[in-house]
Amino acid sequence: MIVRDLMQMKHPGDLLLTGEHGGQLWRSQFLRSSGFTEASEGRRIHDLRHTFATLSLSRGVDLATVSKWLGHTSVSITDRYMHHLGTQADVAGLALLNGGGGAPGVRDSGTEGKS
């Protein structure tokens, strides 16, 4: 929601986060103005970037788009984030555990013969 709010009134090529005068927000400015160092519990700014990329990919944003957003020169650089998403088997197993339902095309043995 925060990013969506920040995107209001911005053009596609505009910087999302800017300094006081609308220019590029540098790392030191961000750390100073946001209180990130105190609130981060040891995390780095790069961890935010990594989390953003992984969440974007896990929610179906294509690799080329995420790569462009991150400013990578090649999708092979962005592809490094993919290992955090697991395999399709991991996804199916987690869906079973979290949703209580079976994978597509697999019957739940506890419901057979019941109407």
Low-confidence stretches: 106-115
Rounded to an integer in angstroms, the radius of gyration calculated over CA atoms is: 20 Å
Q: Which sheet architecture does the biggest sheet show?
A: none
Give the helix tally. Answer: 7
Amino-to-carboxy terminus distance: 43 Å
The H-and-E topology, N to C, reads as: HHHHHHH
**What fraction of residues sit in β-strands?**
under 5%
Quote the average pLDDT: 75
- The protein's oligomeric status is single chain
Number of strands: 0
Described by the principal axes of the CA atoms, the overall outline is globular
Please identify the structural class as seen in this structure: mainly alpha
- In which range does the helix fraction lie? 40-55%
Q: What keywords describe this structure?
A:
mainly alpha, 115 residues
Annotate the secondary structure layout.
Blueprint: H1 2-7, H2 27-34, H3 36-39, H4 45-58, H5 63-70, H6 75-78, H7 88-99
Helix pairs in contact: 4-5
What does this structure look like?
By secondary structure, the chain is mainly α. It has a domain of 79 residues. Helix content is 49%, strand content 0%.
Structure summary:
This protein is mainly alpha-helical and 115 residues long.
